[in-house]
Amino acid sequence: MKDIGYVCSGDGGQVTTFDDYRAYIDDMIYVMELDRVDLQQYRAIVIPDFSNQEVLARHAGKFDDYLAKGGFLIAFEPSRLDQWLTIVDVPWFERGTKDWKWWMKPGGRLEVYQPEPKHPMAEAIPVADMSWHFFGAYRFFPGAQPILNLDNDEGCLMFDYRLPEGGGRLICSTIDPVVHSGRRFMPATTRFLNGFFPWLKAEVAREHA
């Protein structure tokens, strides 16, 4: 069995990011060929930000089945899987970044923090490396562990949810590191991925030890 599959829609930033972190990723899965791929051969599947929504929606049942059988799915926004994944009711809501140019201002900060106790991913990636902007947010819901929250706990930008009764695991994010890093825009996104892919590889090994 392989560790990590990476679903690519063909965007140049997605391809470059795959090349950057291919030491941690087993295969690139072209989204247009999903019907030919058995996702169950991967312990984890990563869906990058700015993926082809129409094609993902066409294969929603495939991802539902993957999670139902114990798979580990990580989706970055804007992938809007709340519109096509049915096995989990993803509670997305409209919420924009208050100040997209916060990083250009002395003492500026994005309106986010990592809640305590910190999720293991947050232990591997500091909040500064999770901060650039975001697309929407999630409501808190039972059984999900927040990873990155909005100030005043208005909602979260990333959560980790384990499905009940032997199901899989879902990490959802409204931040978009993959394409930015691949296009060499916003250094924090590259720092995020420098922590994320080693963490994911280690997490998969730990869960299947």
UniProtKB/TrEMBL annotation:
InterPro entries: Class_I_gatase-like. This is Uncharacterized protein. It comes from Devosia insulae DS-56. The lineage of its organism: Bacteria, Pseudomonadati, Pseudomonadota, Alphaproteobacteria, Hyphomicrobiales.
